[in-house]
Design a protein that fits this description.
Layout lengths: L1 E2 L2 E4 L3 H13 L5 E4 L7 H9 L4 E2 L7 E3 L2 H8 L4 H10 L4 E3 L4 E4 L4 H14 L3 E3 L6 E5 L2 E6 L2 E5 L1 E4 L14 H8 L9 E3 L3 E2 L13 E9 L5 E11 L3 E3 L1 H16 L5 E5 L6 H10 L5 H6 L4 H10 L13 H12 L1 E2 L4 E2 L7 E3 L7 E2 L4 E2 L5 E3 L6 E3 L4 H16 L1
Parallel strand pairs: 1-11, 2-3, 2-12, 3-8, 12-24
Antiparallel strand pairs: 4-7, 5-25, 6-7, 9-10, 10-11, 13-21, 14-17, 14-20, 15-16, 15-18, 16-17, 18-19, 22-23
The structure holds flavin-adenine dinucleotide.
Length: about 400
């Protein structure tokens, strides 16, 4: 049985941050980090297309969902973006801001981030043992005992930094939720993939447009017609349906609303997000003898313009002033508020994050210690917090990991 003062399960972004900060705050503690993966840092390495989008220039609680925004804000402000930038600079990782506000290492290489974190964890004396998957955890009089095929360890303080279920082959397969449950923790009723591509019926016209990328707008509407969420950003048509930042961002709101109201919830797509239904219809009415296909071709690729006309049931060669009222209305709907018959999502294998997890109401936010199991701390994606595309999920990992590190 290995003895430690602080046991951290998970050597991802949140677990490594915890180890570094705990080691700096309490220099003589024995810190043991256990990770089930043979290769560490899989998610840091794949993030941002291999460049690792470390954080965002402007991080506010509005970019997150799950637990209350007030609770999320309390944790984020303990270790904010300037502190994150300074932390990485001190580790030798300078960050640069791109036009979108996303911050990346100047090297454009995620290895720089992972190696700096691993080096900093070693420098404070933390021991990272892997592969060492924890399959059991028990509360004992003197703290916690954890075990797996690799052996066992015990410590008075335990940190769960096991991530969620996204990208299960990385080792984050939801096993941490069971460990939390076995220590008396509740999980949210819903745990589902977020930042995930959405699927359409194979014969939907969008699937035949595979490869087209454009700016598009998406709205989730409730059965009563209320707009629950909206995002406009780069969108990718694929052979299975839709992907790209706009779709990833709206996915969790759509999937959540769909669970509330499976029949009424709708996802609407606007192919010309700078236009409303009214402005587009006014344009059509003023276009005269120009064909509908050419009219759309002012903004959209020809292949797409043709497909939209056909989806609206009109010949692309029909002159705009020859469109019947129902045909015009059908084109306006198809172009600016197309109802998408979503069949599902691409699942955790393709999701970037998990929605749901340990609710922050069960956590003391000043320390990230469990209210239900004293001595247990949580951070990162295992919490019921998920952010938008853009570096927000890592920022949650750094901020919550920091709070655990100084408190544990
Ligand atoms: C493809 C992809 C791209 C992404 N890009 C970005 C991006 O650019 N910017 C951004 O902000 N976010 C991005 N994210 C999200 C971000 O990577 C995660 O939110 C973040 O890594 C979560 O950190 P974490 O430490 O909480 O969990 P994880 O990174 O999932 O780490 C958890 C660790 O715990 C280990 N573990 C789990 N269970 C056990 C167990 N029972 N015993 C021992 N070890 C265990 C796992 O092996 C893993 O190493 C991306 C995610 C994916 C999948």
């Amino acid at each position: 049985m290995t003895e430690a003062d602080i046991l951290i399960i998970g050597a991802g972004a949140a677990g490594l941050m915890t180890a570094i900060i705990a080691g700096r705050t309490h220099p003589n503690r024995r810190i043991l980090v256990l990770d089930g993966a043979a290769k560490l840092g899989a998610k840091i390495l794949v993030a941002g297309g291999g460049r690792c989008n470390v954080t965002h220039d402007e991080v506010s609680a509005e970019a997150y969902a799950g637990s209350s925004r007030n609770a999320i804000k309390k944790v984020l402000r303990r270790f904010d973006v300037p502190e994150t930038v300074a932390f990485f600079r001190e580790l030798g990782v300078d960050l640069k801001r791109e036009d979108t506000g996303k911050l990346f290492p100047v090297t454009d290489d995620a290895h720089t981030v992972l190696e700096a974190l691993l080096q900093a964890a070693r420098e404070v004396g933390a021991v990272i043992q892997h592969p060492a998957r924890v399959t059991q955890v028990e509360r004992a009089a003197d703290g916690f005992r954890v075990s797996g095929e690799w052996g066992s360890a015990r410590a008075p303080k335990l940190v769960l930094a096991t991530g969620g279920r996204a990208l299960p082959k990385s080792g984050s397969d939801g096993g941490g939720y069971e460990l939390a449950r076995s220590l008396g923790h509740r999980l949210t009723d819903r745990i589902f993939p977020a930042l995930v591509p959405l699927t359409l019926p194979r014969d939907h016209f969008i699937c035949a447009l595979s490869g087209i990328t454009l700016q598009a707008g998406f709205k989730v509407r409730s059965g009563a017609g209320k707009c629950l969420a909206s995002f406009t950003n780069s969108t990718l048509c694929t052979h299975f349906g839709l992907s790209g930042p706009s779709v990833l961002d709206i996915s969790r709101y759509y999937l959540d609303a769909k669970l509330d109201d499976p029949t009424g919830t709708r996802l609407l797509m606007n192919w010309l997000p700078e236009q409303t239904s009214d402005s587009f219809e006014a344009g059509l009415l003023a276009a005269g003898r120009v064909s509908a296909g050419r009219f759309l071709g002012r903004w959209l690729p020809e292949r797409l313009a043709r497909a939209l006309c056909e989806a609206a049931g009109i010949e692309p060669t029909t002159a705009c002033d020859q469109l019947s009222r129902p045909a015009r209305k059908a084109l306006v709907e198809t172009v600016t508020a197309l109802p998408l018959p979503i069949t599902g999502d691409r699942g955790y294998t393709y999701a970037e994050v998990t929605a749901g997890g340990i609710p922050l109401t069960d956590i003391r936010l000043e320390t990230m210690e469990s209210r239900l199991c004293p001595g247990l701390y949580v951070c990162g994606e295992i919490c019921d917090v998920d952010g938008r595309i853009g570096g927000y999920n890592f920022q949650w990992a750094w901020s919550s990991g920091y709070v655990v590190g100084v408190s544990v």
